[in-house]
Amino acid sequence: MSTTKRIYGMYADDDDLLNGVKAFTDKGIAIAEVYTPFPVHGLDKALGLKKTRISDAAFMYAVYGLTVGSLVTWYTMNRDWPMNIGGKPSFTWGENMPAFVVPMFELMVFCAAHMMSLTFLVRNKMYPGCPPQNPDPRTTDDKFMMEFVTDNVDAVKQILIDTGVEEITVKDA
Amino acid sequence: MSGHYEAPIREPLIIGHKTYHDISEDIARPIEERAGKLWWISFWIALALFIYGFGCIAYTIGTGIGAWGLNRTNNWGWDITNFVWWVGIGHAGTLISAVLLLFRQRWRMSVNRSAEAMTIFAVVQAAIFPVIHMGRVWVGYWVFPLPNQFGSLWTNFNSPLLWDVFAISTYFSVSSVFWFMGLIPDFAMIRDRAKTPWTKRIYTFLSFGWGGKAKHWQRFEELSLVLAGLATPLVFSVHTTVSFDFATSVIKGWHSTIYPPYFVAGAIFSGFAMVQTLLLVARKVAHLEDYITMYHIEIMNIVIVVTGGMVTVAYATEYFIAWYSGSRYEDFTYLSPGAATGPYWWAFWALIICNLVVPALFWFKKVRTNIIATFIIALIINIGMWFERFDIIVINIARDYLPSSWTMFKPTIIDVGVYLGTIGFFGVLFLLYARTFPIIAQAELKTILKMSGETYKAKEEEDEHH
Question: Does A117 touch chain B if contact means CB atoms closer than 8 Å?
């Protein structure tokens, strides 16, 4: 039988949780996951999480949207069927462009916002009707939970107790 | 507790001795309890108005735009008035959630969810008007640049009317996405405490499996920040574009460079007035006085007084220039001595009294911190801002360059019905929202409990004295 266990430690307060996380990282014990009801300030740093790159992705989506806006306005207004509308210069896109600023800007924002949100959902493996990803329903209310996958059950339990844990659950991994 | 420090001079944003669990309870209560009598009465009234308005829209589509009071001189009337009025109302929501997020104004957390809901529902009402004004709504998709069978017929990207299509639809969809992404953790909270299987199923569907993992929260915060950064210029661009519908035309009174900033200020002014109207009722009905405090109400009244001041300056400028220019045509614009004494004098004075005189009462702290006064003044501003758009459209075009074509605009019963219908539709949406959605962003609110909660602030102050 494997000795690897899944341990859940439930805290009642975010400050206790942060102290707990620091105690584990100081000892070099890996925390598998932390579930919290709200974004706890400083938790990502304490866990050593890397900066998320979805804002970089959003920039790329914005560039894409702006490009689409430029191409659509150029093709329809200057390439396919140029028309003299209100005396606005339709010979080149460059001259005509000030009239296209609004749709170009809107397409940029549209693409950046929607595609970034989709990236967020895909990266989090979230979709409509997805079963809850938190192991205990209380973690969306007022409890803070640490999850461990470890062989060293007693050491983990001891640190949890020392840092003021409220409830410990051990399951077979 | 050093991480939670906030200057003691700041008033607490959450009153009472709340815990994290209390916040969950308070926000979930309106969803889990049965609807009260007041809710049902409001709902039936709103539904009746909606059905009546729907009938008027159906009649308009079946008969044509002739069902409205438009004529050859006044070819825009209540339709565009209502459109601009609703879009303006839709401005406060994204302003509160996006601009105030970037400015790190914590008081926004208690009001942003409902203000955003109001925004989205108001934009839905606004969109109805240009669509039905097309007459043949079934070819409405021609406003988009789609390849078509008419040769090379493309939409005209030089036209402010097309800019508006892009601006409004982007504003609507980006606001909706922003709103929904913020709702996911709160739906998860409702899901995890749901008792009946159907509630559980519905909120499981809506919460997308959210579990509050550390990495997910990190991405969530980044997403909120970037969406706020994108939505901020969007807020300003939308009403700027709406103002271009007028400002880029050659109609006297419309062709004015002051329009974009003046429209944006007016939109925020009317949007906040509507937020006050809705939230003062919602906080009472849903017992959220501890979260939407007097401080919140006062600070929103200050926003109203500031934006109202901008609008006042714009009015004064327009009025002065109309007189000072000495141009005869300028004397027929909506803010001119001619308008103040002409056939639409009542509309002119309704605008001045509702938008300039009455909101100025908010300069007094006694009025600003009085709930009944706030509610009444907010309603008056809503009326005043409707008159502003009515004046811009009807007063300016009723007296054209050609005196032989001067005529008055008279709305028909269908005009009135469509307008009342959109108010009913808005009411139905908002009432349904208030019963099924977490009306305060509870996950966000929990992050400031230790900073701005009354108990915690008192404790911190005590520590300081020792």
Answer: yes
Which residues, numbered 31 to 90 in chain A, qualify as contacts with chain B under a Cβ-Cβ cut-off of 8 Å? 33-44, 47, 49, 52, 54-55, 58, 62, 72-73, 76-77, 80-81, 83, 85-86, 88
pLDDT of B394 strictly over 60: yes
Q: Is A105 on the interface with B (CB under 8 A)?
A: yes
Residue B356 has pLDDT above 60, yes or no: yes
Mean pLDDT of the B255-268 span? 89
- Give dist(CA B105, CA B111) in Å, integer: 11
State the pLDDT at residue B1: 41
Which token pair is B86? 């609703």
Question: What kind of architecture, by CATH, is found in domain A5-37+142-172?
Answer: 2-Layer Sandwich (3.30)
C-beta atoms of B158 and A47 within 8 A: no
pLDDT digits (tens, 9 = 90+) for B116-130: 899 999 999 999 999
For B213, phi and psi rounded to 5 degrees? -70, 155
Taking the Cβ of residue B48 and every Cβ of chain A, the question of whether any pair is shorter than 8 Å is answered with: no
How far is CA A1 from its chain centroid?
Answer: 37
Question: How far lies B338's CA from each of A115, B3, B284, B319, B324, in Å?
Answer: 52, 61, 45, 10, 13
Residues contacting B338, CB < 8 A, separation 6+ = B322, B331, B332, B399
Mean predicted confidence (pLDDT) in A38-52: 87
Q: What is the structure's pLDDT at B417?
A: 94
Interface predicted TM-score (ipTM) of this complex, two decimals: 0.91
pLDDT, tens digit, 9 for 90 and up, residues B68-102: 989 888 888 899 999 999 999 988 788 888 888 88
pLDDT, residue B6, reads 64
pLDDT of B463 above 80: no
Closest chain B residue by Cα to residue A46: B214
> Among residues 88-117 of chain B, which lie with CB inside 8 Å of chain A?
none
Cα distance from B165 to chain A (closest Cα, Å)?
A: 9
Percent of chain B scoring above 70 in pLDDT: 96
Closest CA to B138 of B62, B50, B211, B42: B62
Tokens of B290: 């501890």
Cβ contact A49–B218 (<8 Å): yes
Rounded to 5 degrees, φ, ψ at A88 are -75, 135
**Contact (Cβ atoms closer than 8 angstroms) between residue B30 and residue B426:** no
Q: Does B159 touch chain A (CB under 8 A)?
A: yes
Do B209 and A37 lie within an 8 Å CB cutoff? no
Task: Name the CATH architecture for the domain at B37-144+155-448.
Answer: Up-down Bundle (1.20)
What residue ranges do the domains of chain B occupy?
37-144+155-448
Residue boundaries of the structural domains of chain A: 5-37+142-172, 54-123
What average pLDDT does the structure give for chain B?
88
Is B389 or B252 the better-scoring residue by pLDDT? B389
B391 shares contact with chain A (CB less than 8 Å):
no
Name the pLDDT band for B176 (thresholds 50, 70, 90): very high
Q: Between chain A and chain B, how many beta carbons pairs sit less than 8 Å apart? A: 209
